[in-house]
Prior knowledge:
Layout (H helix, E strand, L loop, with lengths): L3 E3 L5 E3 L2 E4 L11 H7 L3 E5 H7 L2 H6 L3 H5 L4 E5 L2 H10 L5 E3 L2 E6 L2 E5 L1 H11 L3 E3 L11 H28 L9 E6 L5 H14 L3 E4 L4 E2 L2 E2 L1 H10 L5 E4 L5 H10 L3 E4 L1 H7 L3 E4 L15 E4 L20 H5 L2 H9 L4 H22 L3
Parallel strand pairs: 3-15, 4-5, 9-10, 10-11, 11-14, 14-15
Antiparallel strand pairs: 1-2, 6-7, 7-8, 12-13, 16-17
Amino acid sequence: MQKNFRRLDGMTLPYPLFFPDATRGEVRQLSFEDVKKVGLPGILVNTFHLLRLVGTEKTELAGGIRSHLGWDKAMISDSGGFQIMSIAKKGGDNSTVTDKGVTFTIDGVKHHFSPEDSIKYQMAMRTDLMVVLDDFTPPDATYEEALMTVNRTTLWAKRCKATYLAECKRLNIPRDRRPYLIGVVQGAYFDDLRIQSIRELTEIGFDGYGYGGWVMRDGKFDIATAKLMADNLPKDSVLYGLGIGKPDDIVKCVELGYQIFDCVLPTRDARHGRLYVYKAKEIEKIDVYQDSFYEYYNPRQAQHLEENAPVSTACDCELCMTVTRAELAKRWRERDERVLRLATIHNLRFYAILMEKLGSGN
């Protein structure tokens, strides 16, 4: 198992790593300085949205999306596939998914997005890690539908790998400065299809492999599929928990060997008044391996209007160091948008501490 993540500039970061979603090139409510202060190593950007918003020409002129955005830490990119599939499946007769790629309509304009398009733009962005375009398997897929997504994902993965190698050659990128390329394992809840996907993707060969498809099963995290993948993928490859973000699930996945995670949960929950709080008096006493090691805190509840303590004494973020529960509750009721920034900082600091604890074995 690899111990460190390598950036394009040669710098390394110890696993595990959590990347907050900066889908359109920014983490909602936060400046880049805010993101750096919470202690997370980088951000995740979305290929589809940045291709639309920035475009290849501006990205290449800037020398990559990091320079264009003004971000100087680690950056990983997803393929844009999930967003495009969502648009395509809502588009009815105006959208199609075929072996060639995805055709969809936005604002009355028809677009086509192929595996080659995804990789070429990710290479233009110069992110540290890229993900191949995959055919996302919906949670209610039949066996036949899941098999179709596995087959198409393999086909697209081959084309992504070929495009990646061609771009590396064209740009004369040495092996030790190439971005990670991640294949995505599909197959829904069918073990034999997951094994088929693993076999076909490992034959193509990738730097790492991601948990593809829906991660929930019967209302709970599908730990059985996560374990099946970890047990059958190459031990020297990077394991990426795509979209896995609940703290309990991250702990379980790290124990299985997963190293990279991204999710909208901490930032989205913060905006909706759901803050994560460790069940400990101080950071040094946090034990992420105990059952129920954290709880949710809702600043909108009236009971907090009389509490002069910080949200958490086991946190050193700006919110916990400068604002009391009573003040936060009051400002939340006043719909003061500045508290959304503080809540987002708090939740991301919670995840940064979680990664630190998991990396050190507590």
